[in-house]
From TrEMBL:
Domain of life: Bacteria
GO MF term (any one): ligase activity
Organism: Floridaenema flaviceps BLCC-F50
Name of this chain's protein: D-alanine--D-alanine ligase
Family named by the database record: Belongs to the D-alanine--D-alanine ligase family.
Domain ATP-grasp stretches: 128-335
PANTHER family per UniProt: D-ALANINE--D-ALANINE LIGASE (PTHR23132), D-ALANINE--D-ALANINE LIGASE B (PTHR23132:SF23)
InterPro entries per record: ATP-grasp, ATP_grasp_subdomain_1, Dala_Dala_lig_C
Pfam families with a match to the protein in the record: Dala_Dala_lig_C
Organism placement in taxonomy: Bacteria, Bacillati, Cyanobacteriota, Cyanophyceae, Oscillatoriophycideae
Length: 350
């Protein structure tokens, strides 16, 4: 029997960024994993007014021409579709939390982490506290609200406490730079995190997937940073806008690359990443950023607990470097969500 999969797309945020991000990765996923012999894909698109649409595709024409419906109507449509599984593709905080919780209430399984885990990871200071309690190195820091005066001596990194993709993040080298950095960060979050700047050795990211009860650490992804003129990553390292305003993935082989599995840092970071996965209560998959100091010690920066199953999604790229295609990666995640082996995930519902 073919699995009926609902891709949950869109954003409740009034800015365009999270919606564009969702459309970018969901669109790539729909193309990369389409297999009518295995899956029947459906789309649920949530707009900032919290109305739902069920378009036949993610084209602008289909999105604009599809009649919006209320939450109550959307639940009825989802029940009528007899959805077997959901792939969450929303990156705003309500999308990562409230909308996942909705499917828990509807008893419809979904791939990825539970809403309470997503909420923890979305607030960087909470994620830091939890992994630190598990014995993971984290930069010293302080959490500020509007009007608070920072006490930490530069150099420090100032970042929104609940925003991703380096939005609003600034390296402060002198006290005089604090005001501008705080103003920028508060544009993205009601709270701001100030952290010690970890002297640069390297900056890497590690993905973890669960496969038949085992934690599998994927090859590390390393970022092009240097102490002279690019000491921290910024938004442009991750995403870019075209001349027409369209959002595109900014990664390329010049600013990111896969770390050789025999590199001594690989095993060290992978072990720490597994600790983070377990400490935060992750399931199915997880993704963590680390700063590696000149002595080779990894320091936890943040967690990004989502995977879009698009070819340029971070976990998918790491999995491909490990020999797992994006199709197989989705199959593994579905098997974990349904409690089957990857080879029998489809047959489970037959």
């Amino acid at each position: 029997m073919v699995l009926r999969i609902l891709h949950l797309v869109g954003s409740t945020d009034s800015s365009d960024f999270y919606c564009d991000l969702s459309l970018l990765f969901a669109g790539d996923c729909l193309t990369a994993t389409a297999n009518p012999a295995l899956y029947e894909f459906h789309i649920a698109y949530v707009s900032p007014d919290r109305l739902w649409r069920f378009p036949p595709s993610l084209s602008k024409q289909d999105l604009s021409s599809t009649e919006p419906v209320s939450l109550a109507q959307a639940v009825q449509i989802i029940n009528d579709l007899s959805i077997d599984l959901v792939v969450p593709q929303m990156f705003c905080i309500p999308g990562m939390t409230q909308y996942r919780a909705l499917f828990d209430l509807l008893h419809i399984p979904y791939v990825g982490n539970a809403p309470e885990v997503m909420a923890l990871a979305a607030h960087k200071h909470l994620a830091k506290a939890i992994v630190a309690a598990a014995g993971v190195n984290v930069p010293a820091g302080e959490l500020l609200k509007q009007g608070d005066v920072p006490t930490m001596k530069p150099p420090v990194v100032v970042k929104p406490a609940s925003s991703d993709n380096s939005l609003g993040t600034t390296l402060v080298k002198e006290f005089a730079e604090y005001d501008a950095a705080l103003t920028t960060a508060f544009n993205y979050s009601e709270q701001v995190l100030v952290e010690d700047y970890i002297e640069l050795g390297r900056e890497v990211r590690c993905g973890i997937i669960e496969r038949q009860g085992e934690l599998v650490a994927l090859p590390l992804e390393e970022y092009q940073v240097n102490a002279q003129n690019h000491p921290i990553r910024n938004f442009a390292d991750k995403f870019k806008h075209t001349e027409t305003g369209a959002l595109i993935n900014g990664k390329d082989n010049l600013n990111t690359w896969s770390v050789d599995p025999t590199d001594p840092i690989t095993a060290v970071v992978q072990q720490v990443a597994k600790k983070c996965h377990q400490a935060l209560g992750c399931r199915h998959y997880s993704l963590f950023d680390f700063r590696v100091d000149p002595q080779g010690q990894p320091w936890f920066l943040e967690a990004g607990l989502y995977c879009s199953f698009a070819k340029k999604s971070a976990i998918a790229m790491m999995a491909q470097a490990f020999g797992i295609s994006v199709d197989e990666l989705l199959s593994i995640a579905i098997a974990e969500a349904l409690g089957t082996s990857p080879s029998s995930a489809i047959g489970k519902l037959a």
